Amino acid sequence: MSDLALLTAALVCAVCGMAWLALAMKPHWAQVQSARPHTAAIARRLRVAGAVALLLSLAASLGADHPSMALLFWVMTLSVSAVIVAMTLAYWPKCFIWLSWLPDESGKPTGLIGGGPAWSSGRITRARSSLQSGSSHG
Question: What is the pTM of this model?
């Protein structure tokens, strides 16, 4: 893999990891998944997913460069990722709904990937049609 691909993968993994760690907190979960309660099991799975993503980000950074530069890039990537997640949660929290893919108690995925409640309620379809027609809702 090229260095650019590895560094891009490190950034993507860091953003996903920071988002999962943020979603493990009740207020952020409520911003993104208001239809589903925040349980301890969900929080635990989100924390594990976030930690694994951050470790994958570190591994991708180490694969792209020598250790001293890789650690510098990784720390800067963590900082940038935290800002990206914070700004996204402040201005467009529903953007992270696809990251809440964790299965519910029955084992069915709940995020957009699994066609969860956002799709079945028609919210995504209504949002798309209002964007295409030029109307906005607050």
Answer: 0.72
CB-based contact 17:50 (threshold 8 Å): yes
Mapping DSSP to helix (H, G, I), strand (E, B) and coil, where does residue 134 land? coil
Question: 74, 55 in Cβ contact below 8 A?
Answer: no
Please check the confidence at residue 138 and state whether its pLDDT lies above 50. Answer: no
Cα separation values, 25 from 21, 30, 35, 56, 60, Å: 7, 9, 15, 22, 27
DSSP states along 23-63: HTSHHHHHHH-TTS---HHHHHHHHHHHHHHHHHHHHHHHH
> What's the CA gap between 122 and 55, in Å, rounded?
36
Q: How far apart are CA 22 and CA 117, in angstroms?
A: 21
Which pLDDT band, with edges at 50, 70 and 90, does 63 fall under? very high
Write out pLDDT tens, residues 23-54.
888 888 888 887 777 788 888 888 999 999 99
């997640």: which residue's tokens? 85
Query: Which residues are bridge partners to 103 per DSSP?
Result: 109
